[in-house]
Design brief:
Elements lengths: L3 H5 L10 H8 L13 E5 L6 E6 L5 E6 L4 E6 L4 E6 L1
Antiparallel strand pairs: 1-2, 2-3, 4-5
């Protein structure tokens, strides 16, 4: 089986994220300004304050959709319109 660090293009001591994703991670999170059905964005859980993501429903209302795992934060990748939970 291939070494994961080789597949990701990094050494075991560096971040496991591809360089482009690491660079985007350092920038401020971005979210679509409007609620268009099917769009997603980073958000905070309204009950716990945990970072996660929301989805715009068919009624054009944002719905909280899920939490990021512990020790991660949500970053929105504008290049493909998706939020990702990134290690902090």
């Amino acid at each position: 089986m291939a070494d994961k660090s080789r597949l990701l293009g990094s050494s075991p001591s560096s971040s496991p994220l591809p360089r482009r994703l690491r660079d985007l991670h350092r920038r401020k999170a971005w979210a679509p300004p409007d609620c268009t059905p099917g769009t997603v964005a980073c958000a905070r859980n309204p009950k716990t304050g945990s970072e996660g993501w929301k989805v715009c429903d068919t009624q054009k209302v944002w719905q909280y959709a899920g939490d990021c795992p512990p020790k991660t934060k949500c970053m929105f990748l504008a290049a493909n319109g998706s939020p990702y939970c990134i290690p902090v």
